[in-house]
Amino acid sequence: MNSDCIAAISTAQAPGGVAIIRISGAEALSVAEKMFSPVGATPVAQFKPRYMYSGTISAAGGITDFGLCVYFKAPHSFTGEDVVELHCHGGVELSRAVLRQALACGARPAKAGEYTMRAFINGKISLSAAEGLADMINGESTAEVRAGSLLYSGRLTKAATEIQGELTDILAKIGADVDYPEEDIERTELFDIKDKLAALRARVQTLADSYDGGKKIKNGVSVAICGRPNAGKSSLLNALLGYDKAIVSAQAGTTRDVVEGELELGGVRFNFYDTAGIREEAGEVESIGISRAKQTLSSADLALIVYEGAWGAEETEILQHCPCPAIKVRNKRDISDLPDGNEDIFISALSGEGIEELKTLMRKTALPQGSLAGAFIIEERHYEALSRTARSLAGAENAIGIFPADVVSVDIKEAWDTLGEITGATATEEIINTIFSKFCVGK
Ligand code: GDP
């Protein structure tokens, strides 16, 4: 274990009430001793762990501040090492001066994610919990923060470890057969193992399948707004976002670029892509927009097909290009409010009529009830590992009764190892470094 002493500002670098400088490593308390003078009689070296002491903090450049100091004794700290936190006033330059002083007193600057990496190395948290922490900190929607917190609480690690435990039992049973081939395991026992593997595979697959909702939590729901020129797509985007994002023009086919906007619905981010109308007979410049519209549609989670008047052949063609659920949005209700019978919803982007109902419909269509409840598979890395685990388990199931036990055990061992990538037990240094490099300095 790398036990040199690291220091960083752990709070955001902006003016605020308080800033926290965190020092971690065996020398943390002696660094603090050189720069903190307590008000009370207890010297820094005798600070009781997890008690706050007030006093004077010396900062670089001859600056002093009045603040607080807390000592966390190893292993009962975030990193598992001795940790000292200095709480000073939340000035950007002031907190930097405190950090510089800590560096002058023997600490070195912490790298991005180094505190969390030490927590992982010291067995304080699993790899997926560390990723959950990053999701929780970087989360931009309620659902993402919630999913991050479920990961951080160890939900996925617990599931992976439980499944690994059952695989270990199965390997032990098969192992007996490999070691003593003359004491062949009974055929009934073989089928029992096959059933157990199938049940475990179903569990892994259910977790992997929840990435369908998890992906939307992490990346947001991509909504393609399509329709003929002048149907009111840009106007609808503006009405949904509540501000003028797209340039609205009365001239047909002016929205050539894909314009983006964001909205949070049901705790999940919805990303909008306004597309040029899909029309086969369009001119050259517009066809760039059209190919982009098709591209946008191909990766969309939801399409809004906007039209005015009556639903026509063009709209049907757009619908045929949709690989995702589509909502038929009839616009310009303020001009004529007679339904044409094809619409899912009839709105006016101009007056705002039906916009709230459309939002509800979008939420229900893109996030079917229960699809996000308790979802925490939001990292592609976890989805990918779970899918590989399921494939290895299927391989083992198929091999049972056909191939010798040692062949079957290779697939089971592979499934076990892949689950270990999630918890971190079998993750390579490369995976670990990539994960922690995504953290900010001070975390
Ligand atoms: P796009 O080409 O599909 O993006 O359509 P725009 O949003 O640029 O709208 C085309 C024209 O229709 C503009 O003049 C808008 O003001 C108008 N428009 C859009 N929505 C409505 C609506 O609900 N009612 C009325 N009366 N006009 C609308």
Question: In summary, what is this structure?
Answer:
The protein is α/β, with parallel strands linked by helices and 443 residues long. Helix content is 46%, strand content 18%.
**Number of helical segments with 4 or more residues:** 15
Q: Which geometry do the CA atoms define?
A: flat
The arrangement of helices and strands along the chain is: EEHEEEEHEHHHHHHEHEEHEHEEHHHH
Helical fraction equals: 40-55%
Q: Numbering strands along the chain, what is their spatial order in the largest sheet? A: 3-4-5-6-2-1-7
Provide the low-confidence segments as ranges: none
The count of DSSP E runs of length 2 or more, i.e. the number of strands, is: 13
Quaternary state, please?
single chain
Radius of gyration: 29 Å
Give the overall average pLDDT. 88
Hetero compounds: guanosine-5'-diphosphate
The end-to-end distance, rounded to whole angstroms, is: 18 Å
Computed structural class: alpha/beta
Task: Estimate the strand proportion.
Answer: 15-25%
Characterize the largest beta sheet: strand count, sense, and whether it forms a barrel.
7 strands, mixed
